[in-house]
Amino acid sequence: MQETTYDVIVVGAGFAGVACAQALARHGARVCVIDRKRDLGERLHTTGILVAEALHHPCLAGLPAALVRAVPHARLYAPSLRSVLLAAPGYRFYTTDTPALMRWLGEGLVQRGIALRLGTPFRDGVREGAHWRLPGIGRTRWLVGADGAKSRVAARLGLGQVDRWLQGVEHEFDGVALREPDALHCFISKRYAPGYIGWVAQTPTGVQAGLARRHLPGSTAVPDIDGFLRHTAAMTGLPASRRPDSIRAGLIPCGGPVHLRQRGRVLLAGDAAGMVSPVTAGGIHAGLRHGSAVGEAMARRLQHPGEGDVHVATDAVPAFRTKRALRWAFDHAQFDAPFDLALRTPFMRRLAEQLYFHQRGHGVPEPDTGVPVQHD
Predict the structure, then answer these.
(1) In a domain, 97, yes or no
(2) pTM score, two decimals?
(3) Which residues contact residue 268 at a Cβ distance below 8 angstroms, ignoring those fewer than 6 apart?
(4) What are the C-alpha distances in Å from 312 to residues 2, 151, 153, 309?
(5) Domain total for the chain?
(6) Is residue 371 part of a domain?
(7) Residue 370 falls inside a structural domain
(8) Which residues 6+ apart lie within 8 Å of 148 measured at CB?
(9) Cα separation of 35 and 269, whole Å?
(10) In whole angstroms, what is the distance from residue 82 CA to residue 152 CA?
(11) Out of 5, 22, 73, 281, which could bridge 183 as a Cys pair, Cβ 3.0 to 4.6 Å?
């Protein structure tokens, strides 16, 4: 049987893979996206929380309103559960019905004439002249690994691999409402979340609550999300006895971009390339931007084959210098008592506003919600 030949095969139909494929298709490239899942809404590892900038990306144009919920505030809790409410003019976070969002993205690929092959894992690639051949899938001029932080493309074809992780777990509760639904609740606690945070947020379908902690090689420690939810129940109003309707868990990259993101005509994109903030572990917006940049660079190379190899623009590969420093501090100097005191200072508030809103935010009045929070 004759194999189909493509300009580009993208491995992985996550945010970076979708952005890359759509950028290529806009330039007329023949693209195939493969994913090992039979249903893009299953076995998810992303929280699906979007920063405001992500909604401006072309991949999310026309996103159905029912799939997102605007969250205008962030409430940051110290280990003592004292909190401060943060906001920025016109800024919103957006929680999503994540399984439905991923299925919608997959449907968008098909509508744009991009071949989408679900239930098709990447096993290996064989170089044949000017093409790569993926047994049972087809031949391609270029191959993109957008298959997550444990990229099989990177492992099999000798590219850089993510080597620093957070261990995360998230519970979803259908049909539940928080006492303060218009805030993204973020908890700092060395006991429950060493090296990261816990979070609780209202979604279009209910509530999602997650916890992540530093992951050390060989460690079997897992986040104590049940203890965390009991500890924070009075703050959120989420019943501690309620069992989750769904659970997702996995490793989250936190080391910044990997060093070898391209070898010949194979490139990495998104989580596979380490395009995740070392501090916030936010990878959706970075993945969308990087996937698009990789796609645009390959499209230029396909249209002008004499111009040399693809090199993604430098501004699409953030250095994360400040966030790397903060990651080091989280890993080596996280103590609860100093943070309890620091939360009351203008410096800590400004730092939190920079991390959450990418700009100088402002304090907002405490809403009259009946939430039994301690605040300064």
Answers:
(1) yes
(2) 0.86
(3) 144, 145, 146, 151, 153, 154, 159, 160, 258, 261, 262
(4) 33, 19, 18, 10
(5) 1
(6) no
(7) no
(8) 12, 14, 45, 270, 271, 272
(9) 15
(10) 43
(11) 73
